[in-house]
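Q: Can I see a sequence and its folded structure?
A: Here is a first one.
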Amino acid sequence: MGGETVKNFNRILIFSITLMVILYVQPIQGNAEEGNLFNFYNGETQEKLTDTKEVIVNNGEINSTVSIIENEEEIHHEEFTLINISSIEKLIFNNQEYAIVNYRHDGSANALYFEVFLMNEDGMESIYTSETYERGRVVIEDNEIILEYPKFEKGDVKTNPSNIVTQHFSIIKNKVVENEKEISATLSDQKLQSNTLNGVNPSYAEINSILTEESLKANVSPEIVKAIAYQESGWQQYWERVPESVKKCPNYDGTNVKLGYDCIGIGIMQISNQMYLDEGPEKEEYIRKLKTNIRFNIQEGIKILKEKWNYHRSGLIPTINDNDSMVIENWYFAIMAYNGLLPRNNPLERPFSPYAAYQEEVMERVGNYSLIDINPFPTHKLDPYIIGNGQLRFKTSNFTVEGPQHYSSQSLKAGDTSFVTVNDLNLRSAPGGNVKGSLNKGTKVIITGKYEGNNSRVNQYVWFPIRTSSGQTGWVASSYLSPTNNYIDNYSLSGERRYETSVSIANFGWHWDQPSSVVIGRGDIPIDALTGSVLAAKLDSPLLLTQNNELTESVEKELDRLQPDKVYILGGDKTAISPAVEAKLKNKFGKKSVHRISGTDRYETAFEVAKEVGNSKAVNEIFVTTGDESSSDPLAIAPYAGENNIPILLTRNNKLDRNVIKFIQDYGVKKVTIIGGTEAVSTTVVNHLDTLVDNVERVSGKTRYSTNTEIIEKYYNKADISKIFVSQGLEIADALAASPLAAKENSPIILTRTENVPREVKKWMNGYITEKPNLYFLGGKNAISNNTRKEFNQIVK
């Protein structure tokens, strides 16, 4: 582009921006008898509403106030935190004066709510306050308030919603009436007009590079900034086709710069800081740079994100652990604040896409697009509340989150040392090039040069040139490098009691994936949960443990988050879970959604559960184990049984239970595998089984721990073991609750003592576990001590 062309482009663009600003502050015209619109910016603004009433608005960075003065007396005063008063429109309908006040929450959501005041000689009366609408906008036409806001579907970015909702509000006899909503699909021009000023998006490789560079300059993890940029705009500064709804914005300037559906957000990071700047050349220049300079837009987005990080200093958001800004997971609340401290960002109420809390969606994108095994925030620990003006707050100021902390691997530079975090990592000849070798987990590498990005917005990692100590060289993806020597991730899934531990497991394992079902068992006598864990695994559902006479509070809280379509109760109403708990669940989810699986005793309950697992089909194989709840023999088989839909049935030691016999006969079982030694299931039972099926096997060891390792060795290929769940071997509750998750991860459960790793387990692991698996410890430090955890890490390394 030549110099004169650039000058002409800039002249036209400045004219367009000036026109945009003029249009933006013009009163919204309708058929009301009279209308006056007052826009408010940063700092104090005073306007005359009527002959006798004045409004004083003071919009600050954190706190804002609005006062109405009549005859030098204050008749109305409100104070807000992280909410600005954006405008007041005075209307006269049928000789009655009204004031419509628009408020916007801080954050990229630009969440809007409005309040309607009746103004008369006696003062002002609030007659209506709307709900809060993300990225909404309001216009006044005739005797109606018209609200438009986006409706998102799964996978939508914030500038590209699938639908637009239009809501009409009428003012009738001094009351605001909500009319029906209209939902319409978003439409875009087939092509841009030839006379518009069209920007062209850089390649995704270039955007990847800019996002990485600017993040590193600001000491912010690029993985986070990239996920936010995708969440906001899909990594686009310009529309490829301008939506019709955007063209209706009063400040639409005829270009294809990405303007949000709220007519406020600008560009790749959807910056909205310009909204409250005073009119004039500085604001015009700021808007011009946001529109035409993608790097500047990204810089402003990062600047805003860092400001949100500092909200903890004012007590607006909590911190996590030591508040290390280089840990990706520690940005959870700052990411929330980037969008807004809104009730819609409460992850207990909005846990799953497409309506998930903003920070949850961003963190999920970090995992999916930067390929980092993010440790999800344990939302069951949250204690949210809503303050008077509709803002979200938390009672706890600092949350302790156990588990791996991920430092940005994209922050590595030439000369840095890092460690490979997976096995068989492809070593390539060039970024994304041919595979020339592989590296194993724990391999130490040296970064030998600058990164290169992918030409993709969904592959947000970068490539690094590396050299190993053995002299191998090549390129590897940043996702699989750790800047620290902690390349074995340690997860701690625990709670104060077994009930809270089951909640921790459910919250972790089904954090971003909503299950259709949940299985609930009794926590203090969890034998029914043993057989029920197979059903939970089949349904890809969590297994929660509750008290028998009341629904445990933490379990109820997690059920409210999960919102399953169906709840299975394990065991009878007298021996397991009471009718009171069942009634509460039916009241919460509906009678048809709650199904109790029970028998007269644990053996018959196991039979009924097995029927659900078999699902009226022929069952080739079953596992049979002891009905003694103190035995840990069946714990190791539960994940495998669940993963492969093999029912577990219970028997007495010296006599084959009638329910086992009936199931074998009803379902045509051909093979029975007994779990445990002869003290658990006697040879008498084996002899009886020999008369019923063609094949009877036993898997056992001399101790509960060796039985455990025998099961793993028989049913798991050691080359596939990349994760291990570790549970205390004397109490079965923690391991049972984790069985469906272990099945989901195709991973075994290893049993241990509290204070040390059993000798037979250590010896077996040293010979069998070769893949340096990540470790998932079930239960707190009272269940598995710190020393035992360290011992496991030393063994697998």
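Q: Show me another, different protein.
A: A second, unrelated one:
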Amino acid sequence: MFKNASSGTRNLNSLLLDTKKPNPFPSPPIRSDFFNSQPDFIFGRDYEISEILKIIRRSAINPDPNLIEITGKQGIGKTTLTCWIFKMLEKSNEINKYPMIFLDTISHAEDFGVKALYKQIIVGMQKENLLNNLIFSSISQFFAVLKKVGGSHFNNLQKRFSHNDIAMFISNSENIKIKYEKDPKTIDFCCEVLESEFLFIQKLNFFNFQFMYTLWNSISPTHGLSADPALKGSGSFQNYHIESNNDALTALKDIIGLYRWINNNDACLVIVIDHMEACINYEKKKNFHSLFSLLLSMRQLENITIILSGTLDGFDAMTQILEGDSIKQIDNWASLFQLDSLSNENVVDIIQRYLSNYWRSSNYLPTNELMLYPFCKKSISYLYDATQKDLREVLKDFYIKIETYRISQRVQPILTYFDAFKHLRKRQDVVLTELEQRNLTDMLFDPKIQDKNRSTFVEMGIYEFFLILMNSKKYSYISDVKHEPPIGKHGEKPDIFVEFFGGDILKSTKKIAFEVKIFRVSNEIPKKDIKKTHVLLQDKKVDYVWWITNKPLSIEKYSLPENLKQHLGNTKALTRSELAYACYTVYFKDLHGYVPSLEEVETIFSKMGLNLEELYKVVDDIEPLSIRSTLEIPVKKPQEILDKWEKEIKSKETNKVPITTTKISNKIVEKTREELESILLEIINLKSNGTSMRITTFFKEIPQKYKIEIESEEDKERIRRYASEVAKKQGYRVTAASIMFNKL
């Protein structure tokens, strides 16, 4: 019986901290492997599983050979997918109709010969217990044929086996296996029957007698020592031997033929060549040419499906080496499955499965709200995004978290976005990912927050950032920063007041008003707020106004004299990304636990579209409106600034020096899907005059032409995925490494 955890988290903490229990998550390194670490479950691959199974089953009916390419970044689940398909076939009792053989990693050219491949297939069949199943199933089928034919053939069978044994063997091949395990000489009697029916078999032409005779004898206690090596291509038995690639190809045909004979012509062979990227490590040119030759040889076989699985780098390398007709032959033959990163929802489901199994093993059932404890949907999604959508990294990090809790004997739940940002963030800079941008904006636009308070929050965040700039040597020309100071006879209050005074090139004091308005509901900035801008400029209380807002602002709707328009800076609404960085100023200290550095302030302001050094140059070139001698705001100027300013006035010269601005590069991780797809479509259209283009072209064009930095394999995967979808919408065919401009 399960105990219920409705009382809270105390029991959950106790279970998590129990060092006698295994960690809920798999210990690193985490990888799927058919022979050592098969997956217990899979999420988010329903389409790929369904389509690959369709191809395999179709291959049993249609003799044309099939090539399936499975590609994706390392750790995305390619091996997990193929292992799961094996499990599906096994669960549905189809594995003996569609035997699926996993080959060891191939990394040398000599491994790609047909004979070498055949040897690996036989070894793989032995490892997977498929070989013995084939032997026992073929015996059962052979006995059924002899019984059906009757006469002397059936009498010959009855001389060696009882009527009861024959009936049991024909009804279920498992009975032969049981009999063999009790008495291994059973197989010798079967081989004697087969040998005595040699002429009969030759007439029926069901299969190659020598192959099946060697196959059965490979597990014989009498002849196994010589038959088994011969079957594996390393010896000779009763004139059966495999000397050449052609011999091996014939033997593969015999294997397929035998399976089809047993299953009434409804069977095919499935060969999995995994980790194709291993070819890159050693003599890659020779390796890929050998792989190509092998695939062409295998294409001569009927009723076979080859699954070629590898990373994006592996397929890119193959495309670069196999140019022209060679790669086109593969592209035209292959069915491509490019695995995208799992959705955040899928990853949440996976984490929940691991934790559910842990609670179940402890006979404990948490409430639905605590099923993901000590994590939550937001923290799992955040970590998945922070690890560049690498599920292995997520599982590793959660494993380490649990181990850390056990060492300290204290659970620190990560149940909010703030918790996730503090404890799980991978980036060391202040560049926000798309998910971080979205979450920060969602927090600020919580319906519970009133618009007036929302704007005030952002005002205060930006105001505190300005104070950091003012207190630095680099921005010594910022002489004053105030929040909502009353100015002039009307008492108008700019949201943030900043004064530029002196500096290296500034000709006179300049006063700047920053208006900050962040609304959730309104469609545009209210007239009263725009009127304040007019009054500040018309009354000559400030020299420049800069708007920071998320809503459209049409200053032309209200009268503003032509001579004042040059004193009006930004009036455009912030983009979604710029708005996120404005929100970042509000939550920075809470998220990071420290005051931002000068460089971090510069980066965040730049991402908001606000570059102070550029603004400094702009306001220096406009005529001042405000009069310094009648400044309403008492400002205490640093003496060094006063001295420098007075010196400039006396000399009436300005020594302009180059201003070094903080260069902030754009990054793929910040771009929305719409922005990236627009760029990719433009590149595709430019290249579409040719016959094809490589996917890797995007990796060169985007940084060079669009000045957007590609930081990681996840960035490349995102580009590949979006480029494939954009190309398909245009009617182009997409392969593992190229876009083909011949329309579908």
